[in-house]
Write the structure tokens for this entry.
Amino acid sequence: MQVYRWTLTMALSIVHRATGIALYVGTLLLVWWLVAAASGPAAYAHVQAFAGSIIGRLIVFGYTWALMHHMLSGIRHFVWDLGYGFKANEREALTWGALIGGIALTVLIWIIAYAIGGGR
Amino acid sequence: MSATDTPKRSMRTPLGRVRNLGAAHSGTSDFWRQRVTGVAMTLLMIPVLVIIMMLLGRNQVGAAQILSSIPVAVILLLFIFASAWHMKIGMQVVIEDYVHNEKLKLVSIMLNNFFSVAVALASTYAILKLSSGV
């Protein structure tokens, strides 16, 4: 396959897959967290220590972004599935919306998380 | 939806029976379920985020108390069920696109099923255990 010109929608199509794969692997963290909560205080403390570490925070931050981006990018696909947004300017706008919206929502969620979680 | 479901006396031609089933031989059911689960997760996203915010900074006793409440448990169960199904279909599409060796492809799809079911069952078991307070 020869790509004669890279477009934003092309690149974001790959990002949609990549974030999907990352979320797939990341469910292991979700399972670990829930199983630890059901297991007891010691197991839960391990999860909290990991999630609170620098690496843990980076992973969870990345996971938040992957989830928000994949969701908005997915909503973009729903719009296309319904038959709208195929004009050049419309698909560019939808794609930029998913890209910027994903980053904005991630930052917003973390600000709220620090405001709430930091107070406990 | 396989061809064997068709009654023997069907008037449909063999071509008519396989038309629109595509390369996966199962038609568009996965395409549709991928969208149903995607819509479900989008609708559940705000409640799930609220639950996570409620849990932040709490120890196991506090977290277990919140997780065992019925609305929280039901929302999380719905989200996990939709996620596991959605990611199983999504990963299968990726495998079918990039793994061209037939045997390796079948093994990968099988492992994908195992992983997705294991994620769903382990999470479900944990939530039900928390809910029953054992």
Remarks:
- The longest helix of chain B spans residues 102-132.
